[in-house]
Amino acid sequence: MRFSFIAGKRDAGRCGYSRQTFASMRLARPRTTRRLLSQLPAPWEATYAASTRAELLAAYEAWAPTYDADSVGSFGYAAPGAAALALERHVADASAAVVLDAGAGTGQVGEHLSRLGFSHVLGVDLSAPMLRIAATKGCYRELLRGDLTDRTLLPPGSLDAVVCVGTLTPNHVEDGATLHTWLEWLRPGGVICASIRDDFWEGSPLPNACQRLQEEGLWTLVEETESARYTPLVNDVAFRVRTWRKAVDCLASGST
Ligand SMILES: C[S@@+](CC[C@H](N)C(=O)[O-])C[C@H]1O[C@@H](n2cnc3c(N)ncnc32)[C@H](O)[C@@H]1O
Fold first, then answer.
1. Distance, CA 214 to ligand 1 centroid (Å)?
2. For residues 139-153, average pLDDT
């Protein structure tokens, strides 16, 4: 495995928001999100409440050691497995496909992909502590600390697929320009497979941005899964996995 891990100095200190700021952030969120937030461990809450990049990095640094135990262990977090299965349905040859795990975190998606026979997976994430845990799992060809909104991070047309779980999220990545960037990194005919919470999707710029890419002929939505429970412990927070295929007559750069 090539490990292009930039173990730089810590990007931020601990989250510094006041109890009052936290309270006003909670009020701005949909009721279902507030209900789930009230049951989550503090580091998980902090990733949703982060309002700056420094706060987000600090939240993941604090959460990394217990992320797997909290998300899959205590909550039965279902999205990584569902996204990996969706990707398998839309990629012809798993063993040959070059796949980007966008926001790889501790490598949960990579573990599922590895079991399904994907052997050329690149994991990218902003958080060094999360990537350090992913590196112990032995399921990535390469791990790269980087910003998924940075267009220059990967060469155009270099990927067969992008899989993304939990990263198209408020305060993480939620703009159409980034989706366009990921399309540029894909070869024509490649797929983007993303798991997104329904409440986040509805309250974000993503539906319009995705529709625009479809109208511009840059990609086609090829599958949207049924809404499924985000965790067996909470009834009314759900997610779907959407898969889009990049137009085959697109230039590798993604422009028409
Ligand atoms: C909720 S975690 C999901 C991790 C993993 N995909 C999973 O399902 O367990 C979101 C991840 O996105 C990463 N992230 C957020 N914004 C990012 C960005 N702009 N570039 C790269 N990674 C980012 C965070 O560091 C974090 O590890």
1. 25
2. 97
